[in-house]
Amino acid sequence: MSRGVGEFDLVQGAIPDSLAIVVALLTQLGDIWFVTLLFVVLAVRYDGTDRDRIVAAGGLVIGAIALVLFTKELFALPRPDQPLVAIEALWVPFQFIYSLTGYASGYGFPSGHAVVSTATYLSLATVLPVSTRRRRYAAATGILAIVGFCRVALGLHYLVDVLAGIALSAVFLFLAFRLLARYRSSETRRTVALGIGSVLALAAVVVTGIHIEALALLAVALALFGLSWRADPQRVAA
Known about the structure:
It is found in: Cell membrane. Its main location: membrane. Helix content is 71%, strand content 0%. By secondary structure, the chain is an all-alpha fold.
């Protein structure tokens, strides 16, 4: 099944080889390691209700990562084979960095970076107590556009992979926040969000056939859910 519409020649042709490493690094905004570090920093930076909201957003991101794992397995569609640049064309010190950031393996649909970026930055735009809501959503939209463009430019995804990832994650967030709105306290919402992440992580384990990444995600989700459950005096009561 082909998902391309000829976007690679247009996008890649506009990017000189000298900027390939920049494009690869920008995609790290949607990588799991960066997102994890971001949530840890924010959880340390804030406390009280704000921290509860940030951890709840993190629980939803765990759920989004689980969605990536089992939707990729369900569709099992390959990635495109049109790299932005041959690694040998890069300056030698950049070759190792590009090998880590500019390449990817596994299935290509939907874009995992698009799913995770959407879940991360839209959820943080919803809960972070900084600036105005309009500016937060504008910043989140800008980051999504950058990550999506770079994934296509690197030749790691078709445009439809990115759009599908954004749509899937946005619908998931909409439904999840609607559910969380039913609960009164920030502690309860935090626990419920982590519960959602745990359930989806379990589903990912089942669908992927007990894959190591899914098992690791489930372990993290259950650990955080257990800690949240013990810390929540209302025990997820409405």
